[in-house]
């Protein structure tokens, strides 16, 4: 038998723990401008922690709806509606999927939709929400790089929108996600923002490369 215990840091980690001032200001501006942000990274890279930190910059009058499989987000915000998925229980309790909660959240008139992680059919619903007036939404995804995160989103959508062509899927992703922030982990355990990728019409622009401010056009 094996028991795995996930420990959470008591001290609140801020954006300055992930990046220098210049990179931090770029991320703050993305939040202020209500860009749709996807945070990517490997397991234990600090994706949820960074998501928490970015939520510190939400306006206090905004209505925030969070959706998670397991409650991990600890938002310091006064107007939060928290929704939590539930697996099918042995006692007969009905399953409440993340996908159904995304649809429920849209009826709650959120100013910001925060999804703890996308890994299945809810990816399509999240993109649809981002592309239909729910600006400023944020989520996380497991991926090895910002470019890999884009490919993984495309793959997840194609698994559940089987009648869509790859070009249609790519157009939908590009119209929905504005920025991908890739977080990584140093050998000493500290986390850092490695890349920030902006998604513009027919263009990918890297504005943070290897933790430094840049402006590179990607093919």
Q: Major sheet, described briefly?
A: 9 strands, mixed
State the distance separating the first and last CA atoms: 48 Å
Give the overall pLDDT as a whole number. Answer: 90
Q: Give the count of helical stretches.
A: 6
Task: Explain what you see.
The protein has helices at residues 21-32, 47-55, 98-106, 122-130, 146-160, 166-176, and strands at 37-41, 64-68, 80-84, 112-115, 138-142, 179-185, 191-200, 203-209, 212-218. It is 30% helix and 25% strand. Strand 8 (203-209) and strand 9 (212-218) form a beta hairpin. It is of the alpha/beta class and 219 residues long. The longest helix has 15 residues, at 146-160. A nine-stranded mixed β-sheet has the order 3-2-4-5-1-6-7-8-9, with helices on both faces. The protein has a single domain, classed as P-loop containing nucleotide triphosphate hydrolases (Rossmann fold).
In short, what is this structure?
The protein has helices at residues 21-32, 47-55, 98-106, 122-130, 146-160, 166-176; strands spanning 37-41, 64-68, 80-84, 112-115, 138-142, 179-185, 191-200, 203-209, 212-218.
SSE layout and pairing:
Layout: H1 21-32, E1 37-41, H2 47-55, E2 64-68, E3 80-84, H3 98-106, E4 112-115, H4 122-130, E5 138-142, H5 146-160, H6 166-176, E6 179-185, E7 191-200, E8 203-209, E9 212-218
Parallel strand pairs: 1-5, 1-6, 2-3, 2-4, 4-5
Antiparallel strand pairs: 6-7, 7-8, 8-9
Helix pairs in contact: 3-4, 4-6, 5-6
């Amino acid at each position: 038998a094996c028991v795995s215990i996930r420990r959470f840091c008591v001290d609140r980690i801020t954006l300055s723990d992930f990046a220098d001032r210049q990179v931090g200001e770029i991320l703050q501006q993305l939040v202020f401008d209500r860009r749709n942000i996807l945070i990517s990274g490997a397991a234990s890279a600090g994706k949820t922690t960074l998501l928490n930190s970015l939520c510190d910059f939400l306006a206090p009058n905004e209505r925030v709806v969070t959706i998670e499989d397991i409650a991990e987000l600890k938002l310091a915000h006064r107007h939060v509606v928290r929704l939590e998925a539930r697996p099918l229980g042995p006692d007969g309790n009905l399953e409440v999927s993340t996908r159904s909660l995304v649809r429920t959240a849209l009826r709650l008139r959120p100013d910001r939709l925060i999804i703890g992680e996308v890994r299945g059919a809810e990816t399509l619903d999240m993109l649809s929400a981002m592309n239909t007036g729910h600006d400023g939404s944020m989520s996380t995804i497991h991926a090895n790089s910002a470019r890999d995160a884009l490919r993984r989103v495309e793959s997840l959508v194609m698994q559940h929108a089987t009648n869509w062509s790859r070009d249609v899927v790519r157009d939908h992703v590009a119209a929905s996600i504005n920025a991908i922030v890739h977080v990584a982990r140093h050998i000493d355990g500290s986390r850092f923002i490695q890349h920030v990728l902006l998604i513009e019409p027919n263009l990918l622009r890297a504005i943070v490369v290897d933790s430094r401010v840049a402006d590179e056009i990607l093919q």
